[in-house]
Backbone:
């Protein structure tokens, strides 16, 4: 009886079809066979890319580098044991080009805050959507992950309750690459000075100075000029 060969399975070893430019990827082609050897061939858009023979029952591994958009084409693999069994084709795979996240920017419209005040923090990164953001104070997360489907900043509210709330805040951005995440530069709120009476004090002092100048101008004709004439 001819030895049976199953339909091969083509899978990315990195676990995802999301790839970055210049990334090295490995495609595994494997077919169940009662005994080796098995010849595996990798195809891209029905064109032969590479062929290898496995003399044991391990998968055929094909190394690729994503250098251009043309490397994102449709991939298939074939398995062949002998002519009588013929070729067995895998399902096709297509890579998706993904831009990794950039270092996020953490900011607040109110960098100065007072105790007892609610303030907001916004975090924005560039990269392929969706992007998930997490906010931290020190090393402790202060928010659940916020997934943004649009190119907009993730925003959270922070209540300034004590001096410790003026500590260093950071945010983390991550997209479909599980092992790539970027952190923002640290951000610190500054304590706003209590200056509620300062404008009134300045106005009050300005009015006193103005009255003094006017009074001095009015006094010149009555006191300084007569005394000057009397001395002549």
Residues:
């Amino acid at each position: 009886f001819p030895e049976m060969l199953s339909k091969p399975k083509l899978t990315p070893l990195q676990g995802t079809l999301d790839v970055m430019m210049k990334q090295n990827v490995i495609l595994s082609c494997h077919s169940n066979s009662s005994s080796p050897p098995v010849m595996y061939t990798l195809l891209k858009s029905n064109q032969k890319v590479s062929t290898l023979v496995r003399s044991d029952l391990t998968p055929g591994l094909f190394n690729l580098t994503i250098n251009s958009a043309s490397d994102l084409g449709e991939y298939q693999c074939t398995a062949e044991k002998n002519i009588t069994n013929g070729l067995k084709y895998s399902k096709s795979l297509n890579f998706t080009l993904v831009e990794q996240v950039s270092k996020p920017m953490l900011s607040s419209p109110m960098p100065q805050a007072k105790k007892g005040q609610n303030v907001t923090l916004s975090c924005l990164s560039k990269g392929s959507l969706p992007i998930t953001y997490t906010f931290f104070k020190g090393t402790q997360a202060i928010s659940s992950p916020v997934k943004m489907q649009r190119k907009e900043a993730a925003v959270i509210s922070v209540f300034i309750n004590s001096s410790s709330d003026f500590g260093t805040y950071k945010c983390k951005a991550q997209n479909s690459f599980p092992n790539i995440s970027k952190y923002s530069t640290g951000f610190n709120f500054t304590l706003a000075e209590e200056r509620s009476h300062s404008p009134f004090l300045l106005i009050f002092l300005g009015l006193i100075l103005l009255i003094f100048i006017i009074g001095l101008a009015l006094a010149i004709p009555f006191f300084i000029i007569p005394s000057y004439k009397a001395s002549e």
